[in-house]
Amino acid sequence: MNLDKLKTTDALDVTGKRVLVRADLNVPVRDGKVTDATRLERVVPGIRALAERGAKVIVISHFGRPKGPDAELSLRPIAAALETALGRPVAFAADCIGEEASNVVGALANGGVALLENLRFHKGEEKNDPAFASELAKQGDIFVGDAFSCAHRAHASTEGITHHLPSYAGPLLMEEINALRTALEKPQRPTAAVVGGAKVSTKIPVLTNLVAKVDRLIIGGGMANTFLQANGTAVGKSLAEPDFQKTAREIMAEAKAKGCEIVLPVDAVIAREFKEGAASEVVAIDQVPADAMILDVGPKSVAELTALLASTHTLLWNGPLGAFEIAPFGEGTFTLARAAANLTKSGKLVSVAGGGDTVAALNAANVTDEFTYVSTAGGAFLEWLEGRDLPGVSALAR
Q1: Which are the catalytic amino acids?
Q2: How far out from the chain centre does Cα 28 lie?
Q3: 35, 150, 182, 286: which has the fewest C-beta neighbours closer than 10 Å?
Q4: Binning pLDDT at 50, 70 and 90, where does residue 2 land?
Q5: What value does the mean pLDDT take over residues 102-119?
Q6: What is the 3-state secondary structure (H, E, C) of the chain?
């Protein structure tokens, strides 16, 4: 991907032009109401800016995983939420191609906004069917890809459509890419990455890519237990993947060869039960009883990591350090997140975070808005960390 070839619509006269914007409006909905509008709020400034420049803005998105048309997975309720967020009317078309869509798009005045029905009601969307992409393209004069979170999929609305229309990168997509490039390609050193979560097996490519990119790799969560086992440390009944000890040793050897320091916990919060309010205690990492499980990093680990962040200039964060969703096993993650937020606020740290569990943990710590950038993308964020090309970005950079 030659990311320097990405173009935006900033210098383009869009007055009267039909601009198809691929957004990610796959938001949680309960009883017909949007329960978390974060993704909507992120994409709204780009839509509003195009409308204010006189474009006819046609928003397209998927919603859920329908097997075909499904009233439960209609984007109609999202249209109402988008209208509220935008502060201007949003017309809704009951299909994303054909006469239904054309009639709604044709009725738009300059500055008008429409939302077309769920792309995935058509099998051609996920199959990247050229005929479906061609039909979709008939609704616009220009295409703007503004859904980084969907860019890891070569679908008709992310890749196929770019073969039919002049294509540009939207502001939210550019924000995401610039944040990740800042953290991985042009970072202020020293750099550190926090990689947590349950399993090493799901993040082998991420770890392998990051040891060549960062100065320190902080490993937490269940993943750390596998690395500890690989070093000969017993972890009791903790979540671990014994079959991946060899992989962990290979990653540690690669890190040593690349000059990347691997940082593992030195103490842990343990419990005999995995439940809210379970009796817990702190032990040194090599003193975990055979009948106990590690559920969070301990206070010494947090103090060491906090000190390490103080001498770091760029931080990338993906995954929690412990079972943060169950009290009291989120304190390690929350304390380190607050330390990162404070350093960011004081201008000493560039902090970029992403992934579903990460965002949930930062929200629980009330620091999401204090990080330099927090990505709402899940799979696309991970694939970027793996060093992979994203079809939806590559298509815009052709």
Answers
A1: 39, 199, 356, 379
A2: 16
A3: 35
A4: confident
A5: 98
A6: CCHHHCCCCCCCCCCCCEEEEECCCCCCEECCEECCCHHHHHHHHHHHHHHHCCCEEEEECCCCCCCCCCHHHCCHHHHHHHHHHHCCCEEEECCCCHHHHHHHHHCCCCCCEEEECCHHHCHHHHCCCHHHHHHHHCCCCEEEECCHHHCCCCCCCCCHHHHCCCEEECHHHHHHHHHHHHHHCCCCCCEEEEECCCCCCCCHHHHHHHCCCCCEEEECHHHHHHHHHHCCCCCCCCCCCHHHHHHHHHHHHHHHHHCCEEECCCEEEEECCCCCCCCEEEEEHHHCCCCCEEEEECHHHHHHHHHHHHCCCEEEEECCCCCCCCCCCCHHHHHHHHHHHHHHHCCCCEEEEECHHHHHHHHHCCCHHHCCEEECCCHHHHHHHCCCCCHHHHCCCC
Rounded CA separation 113/117 (Å):
14
**Nearest Cα to Cα of residue 74 among 47, 34, 134, 38:** 34
User: Quick one: what percent of the chain has pLDDT higher than 70?
Assistant: 100
| Amino acid sitting at position 301 | S
Tokens of 217: 């790799």
With beta carbons less than 8 A apart as the criterion, state whether 139 and 101 touch. Answer: yes
- Could you count the other beta carbons within 10 Å of the beta carbon of residue 6? 19
Domains recognised in the chain with CATH numbers: 3-172 (3.40.50.1260), 187-385 (3.40.50.1260)
- Which pairs count as long-range contacts for 78-84, CB under 8 Å and 24+ apart, including other chains? 78/25, 78/27, 78/29, 78/34, 78/40, 78/115, 79/115, 81/27, 81/33, 81/34, 81/37, 81/40, 82/25, 82/40, 82/44, 82/47, 82/113, 82/115
Average pLDDT rounded to a whole number, residues 73-80: 94
pLDDT at 378: 82
Dihedrals φ, ψ of 245, to 5°? -60, -40
Question: For residue 16, what pLDDT band results from cuts at 50, 70 and 90?
Answer: very high
Closest CA to 317 of 298, 297, 341, 301: 341
